[in-house]
Hints:
By secondary structure, the chain is α+β, with helices and mostly antiparallel strands. Helix content is 33%, strand content 28%. The protein is built from eleven helices and 17 strands. The chain has a six-stranded antiparallel sheet with strand order 3-2-1-6-5-4. Strands 7-8-17-16-13-14 form a six-stranded antiparallel sheet. Strands 9-10-11-12-15 form a five-stranded antiparallel sheet. Strand 11 (257-265) and strand 12 (270-276) form a beta hairpin. The N and C termini lie far apart (47 Å). Mean pLDDT is 92; it is low at 1-7. This is PP2C family protein-serine/threonine phosphatase. GO terms for molecular function: protein serine/threonine phosphatase activity. InterPro entries: Bact_Sigma-Reg, PPM-type-like_dom_sf, PPM-type_phosphatase-like_dom. It holds the Pfam family SpoIIE.
Amino acid sequence: MTASEPLPSVEAELRAAPPHALVATARRILADRLGAQEVTLLLADYGLAVLQPVSHLPYTGEPVPAQDGPVGSAFVRQSPVIEVLREPAAHLVHLPITVRGDRLGVLSVRLPEGAADPETVLQLGDFATALGHEVVTADQDTDLYLQARRTRRLTLAAEMQWQLLPGRGCAREEYVIGAHLEPAYSIGGDNFDWSADARHLTITVTDGMGKGIEAALLTSLTVGALRNARRGGLGLADQACLADQAVYAQYGGKMYASTLLLRCDLATGTVTAVDAGSPQLFRQRGGHTERIELDAQLPLGMFEETDYVEQHFQLEPDDRLIVVSTGVHGTRSAGGDLYGEGALRQILSATRPAPPHEAARAVVAGLVEHFGSDDLVSDAAVVCLDWHGPPA
C-alpha cells in the first residue's frame, strides 16, 4: 500500500477475513492500531450460564461465568468493564458484543498501561459491535462460532429448535425484547419468534405437543406456516387459520400446537392478539402485575378449518409484557404447587427493574428453583417485552 492510498476501514478488514479467521483478524487489527497485547472473543452458551472463549479445536477455551466477575458484569450490564492489572501493568477492557439487541458475548482486549482512555474504549466498543455483526454473518458459512457456544452436545430436537429462533433478543427505539429457553440443550417443542417492519411488531410463542423430535417437527411446521402467512401479508387471525390448516393437514388432529400471537402497532401501542392455546400473558404497569385474560381459542391443528378471532388491548409507555409457555406456568413443585400461582408473580415483581434479557432468564432460574432440579420435565419459554412508546 502506498502512502497515497487510504487505510482500509476496520469493517472492511473484518468483512474481507475468512469466516473462521475473524478472531485472528481482530487480534491483528487491534495490535496494529492500538497496541493490543491480547484479544479474546467470548460467546454466551445456549443456557446463558457461561461465556466461552473462541479458540482452536475444540473451539473453546476455559469458560467464565456469564453473570459474575468482570467479564460477566460487562455481559449483564451491557457496558464496558475495565480491569487494572498489576504484574505486568496493563488494562484489560471487557466490551459487550450485541447485535441489534441480541447479546452474543464479550470481547476482552488487553492494552498497555495508560492506553485505556475514554476515546479508546469508545472505539473498542464500536469495534466489538462490528465484530458481532461479522460473527452473525459468518454463522451462515462456518460452524465454528455455533460450536463455541456449546458446553455439551445439543440433542437433535434442540438443534432444530435453535435454528428456528430469530435470536434471544432485539431492540429498537420503540421496544426491547429479551427471551430465554430451557432446557437449552434438549429443548423440544417450545419456540418464540418475532418480526418487525415500519408499522408493526409481531411476536409468537408456540408450545408444540409432545417430546423430542416429534415436538420439534410439529413446531417447525407451525412456525414455518405462521411465517409464510405473515410474509404473505395476512392479518393475525388469518395467520392462525393458515397455520391451523397446515398442522391439521399433516397430523389430522392427533397433534397440535398451542400458540399465542401478538401484533403491536408501533405508532399507537395497540396490541392485537389471538390466544390459540396455553401460553399465558402478563402485563406490568407501574408497580402492578396482572395477567391479561384473553378468550381462549383452540390450539392450532386440533380441528379442521377453525376460525380465529382477534382481540385488542392497549400498551402505555414503560409497560412490560411477559409471555410464558405452559412449561413455566404449569410446572409444579415437589409439594404440588403451581409455579404460576405465586412464585412466578413474585419473580416478575422482583425483576421489574432488570432489563428484559435478565428478567426472562430470572423467570426460568426461578422455575428451576421452584421445581427443585435443572432437569425440567417440560420445555420452558419466556419472552419479555419493554414498550417504550412511539418515537417522540
